Amino acid sequence: MKEKSHELRCTGCGARIAGTDATSNFRCAQCGELYEVVYPWSSDGANLPNAGALRWLWQERRSSTLPIDQSGVWRFRDLLPILDDPSHAVTLREGNTPLYELPRCGKIAGVDWLLAKHQGMNPTGSFKDTGMTAALSVAAERGFKVVACASTGNTSAAMAAYAARAGLTSIVFIPEGKIAWGKLSQSMDYGALTIQLKSDFDGCVRVLNDLVKRLPIYMLNSVNPYRLEGQKTPALEMVEQMDWQVPEHVIVPGGNLANSSALGKGFEEMKRLGLISRVPKISVIQAHGANPLYRAMQASGGEQLEPVVADTRATAIRIGNPASWKKAVRIIRATGGWVEEVSEQEIAQAKAEIGAEGIGCEPASAVTLAGLKKLTRDGRIGREERVVLLLTGHTLKDPEYTIDFHRGTLFSDQEASSLRKPPIVLEARTDAVLKALESSIQL
Ligand SMILES: *Cc1c(COP(=O)(O)O)cnc(C)c1O
Ligand SMILES: [Zn+2]
């Protein structure tokens, strides 16, 4: 018999099952909690892969022409052996995203050394690609013909693209009217069946959960534990890009709350294998209008979470009933990180500051910088700490937001900001332009 490469372990009761035995909604049949993927080396010290050999191998693969070696996810496949045959991987060469320095944002936030891991530089423009290549490859290898997700937009864009590459049918459930145009257009472009439900994200999840019980559809929401195996690889990439140094702090936006725990899993596994000597603090930032985790931490230290009705222009994190909140609480506690909330004004200002460094990101990603400012102000992060912001999505995902910010119409009480640069409309005459330049820029 073939040796098991991995199992699923229930994060509630600890029960272990084979990967193929999970129910269609990826909840434990005994206790209803979510699974995580575990490997022989997760608990057994005898099976640990050799850290030095892995580092060398991952470096070597960078010069390979094989698609799975060119992928920034599958290049690390030794730590995610979830496929029977790695050549089954459906890849768009995801990952391999840049780690940028943000000196001006660092100055504003009060830290000496600030970096951004820009996951918006993935093939469909968000970190969801790293998770989707993993989970969709599992779906394809197991013979599923139809995949589906409920999404605030980026998951559907990623799923539609990877499903199209694999020749699978994909069904997208998104909230009606509360989704950024860039994202909606992507799922149509990649040929998904797009269904807009007259509800919010949480309503889309409810319908999808019912549907997968009745039809042979593979669910690709982040309750699917294979997504997190892909989403842990930016942690590996990050420390590789820092020459195997570990930052003190990684700051992540919190929506459905899977990504924070995925990154944590990546760091914890690297520590277990001796690739790094410690795990960074992982902090999660939510929008004030979609802050169930922040409230849960305030009210009960993360013991209980009350769903909220979510509202924020940062649509990627407009989620009131986050599925993976317990996983997030565990990693925040284990690493000593924080949970903060930020206002719509703070998000808009931070997004403009990231844009003004020539980087740009979507609104949900900018909560990281807005949150960092609060954490330094409150003395929770010191000036000398090396901080990495996880920028989750590309600025072109939501151009309407950016234009509304600069025009001053983002929300009714938008404050003045020196970063606002609305377009100037002039007669096509040189003297008119010269006059405008005099008052706008220094020459
Ligand atoms: C999905 C998403 C998030 C939230 O990630 P979770 O894992 O749901 O917490 C944040 N930012 C962007 C751009 C996203 O697409
Ligand atoms: Zn269980």
UniProtKB/TrEMBL annotation:
UniProt entry keywords in alphabetical sequence: Lyase, Pyridoxal phosphate
CDD domains found in the cross-reference section: Thr-synth_1
Chain positions found as N6-(pyridoxal phosphate)lysine: K128
Cofactor(s) needed: pyridoxal 5'-phosphate
GO biological process, one term: threonine biosynthetic process
EC number: 4.2.3.1
Record has Cytoplasm as a keyword: no
Pfam families for this protein: PALP
Residue ranges constituting the Rhodanese domain according to the UniProt record: 146-190
Enzyme class, broadest EC rank: lyase
Any one GO molecular function term: threonine synthase activity
Database matches in NCBIfam families: thrC
Family statement drawn from the similarity comment of this UniProt entry: Belongs to the threonine synthase family.
Protein name per Swiss-Prot or TrEMBL: Threonine synthase
Organism: Terriglobus albidus
